[in-house]
Amino acid sequence: MQARIEEDVPGFGAPRPLTADEVLRMVEAGLLADERVELLGGALYPMSPQGPGHAFMTAWLRDVLLRMYADVACAFDHTSFRLDDVSLPEPDLVLCRGSLGVYRTRLPTPSDVVLLVEVSQTSQARDRAKAGRYARAGVPVYWRIDLPAESVVVHLRPGHDGYGETQLLGRGDSVELPELAGRRLAVDALLGD
Question: Which of 25, 108, 163, 190 could staple 112 via S-S, CB 3.0–4.6 A?
Fold first, then answer.
């Protein structure tokens, strides 16, 4: 049985948020070795296991996008990403500027990001909620691949109040590839066709 964390215990007050540095030290000490969690806003949240469709789509996207960005970016999938001082989300895919060696001793941050992608098979609400966090941190482009809807939701122009522009693209449409001078990719190709 999993314990429930109270938001405010009389006489104790609200719990203190964890910082990204504290969680990284916990990871290095092996304290979170058996748990799939991500830090969002100072709280640790459990992550769901992935089914075959989600796992396939993440691997597919990584292969497709790395071919397009071979000389520009490297990719991280299902890896902690330092969003801010109290958030270490684990997006499905993050394309970051430069070579992989740049990140040998540090996690990527929003200023490194070319493109961040979440694959939504059953996590649409959770992935929609992350958009605000990503925008406030300055992630320039966030794609949410909605598998059941066979669509790509593109978030552009991040700001304190969220993304200033959102595009809903479906089969037959194409999406602009950030930082590749007007190059586009068919949504059908992103969806594994």
Answer: 108
| Pairing assessment for the beta strands 113-120 and 141-146 based on DSSP bridges | parallel
pLDDT digit string (tens) for 175-189?
A: 999 999 889 999 999
| Residue 23, helix vs strand vs coil | helix
Q: How many other CB atoms are found less than 10 A from the CB of residue 91?
A: 25
Alpha helices, H only, the chain: 20-28, 52-68, 124-137, 187-190
Distances (CA, A) of 104 to 75, 101, 108, 179: 13, 5, 10, 24
Phi, psi of 106 (to 5 degrees): -150, 155
Residue 70: what are its φ and ψ, rounded to 5°?
A: -50, -40
Structure pTM? 0.86
pLDDT digits (tens, 9 = 90+) for 122-145: 777 888 889 999 999 999 999 999
The percent helix, strand, coil of the chain (3-state, each to 5) is: 25, 30, 40
Q: Which helix (H) or strand (E) holds 72?
A: none
Query: What is the set of domains in the chain, with CATH numbers?
Result: 52-190 (3.90.1570.10)
CA gap 27, 8 in Å, rounded: 27
